[in-house]
Amino acid sequence: MTTLAQPVVELLAAVLPAAEAAGVFGACRVEDGMLRCEVANSAEPAEYRVFQDEYQGSPRVWVALVTEDRWLSGSIEGDLVHTGDKIEDLIDEEFVDLDGEGGPFPMEHFRSEEMLFTFRSPLPFAVEDAASAKSVDMTGKALLAFELAFRPLGDMDETEEDG
Known about the structure:
The structure is a single chain. α1 (6-22) packs across α4 and α3 crosses α4. This protein has helices at residues 6-22, 70-83, 87-97, 133-150; strands at residues 25-31, 34-39, 47-55, 58-67, 108-111, 117-122. A 6-stranded antiparallel β-sheet has the order 1-2-3-4-6-5. The chain contains 4 helices and 6 strands. The chain is of the alpha+beta class and 163 residues long. It starts with 5 loop residues before the first helix and ends in a 13-residue tail after the last helix. It has a single domain (6-150), classed as Yope Regulator, Chain: A.
């Protein structure tokens, strides 16, 4: 486990109120060294996370969607295959619509050692700069862009009717 840098601790504390104020997530909290926001209305439990981990040998801040449910992950993948969309492009479109600068973000999709189906992207700033106003703004917008991009996919929102 990577030792959490103090600027990342400050980043998580700064992004939490923005995530709560967005009104699109379930419960949000800082826990276990990460910001955790439950997916609202998902067919199966899932959460968005902001955390520190390694990327190409250096510590970085990540935004992710994680779920234990293979079916939910598969329903997202199925929609992406059916539409031909790339999740990176969908997230970037939402990020740009939120006036975000600094994307697009590379995407990793895998099943983690913790047995979580994970979609995650590293953010393009050094952990030493994580507490800066620019990094906090980027992280909040990236988290919201993830939510906006993933919400219509698969069974992420049970309130959406299939057409």
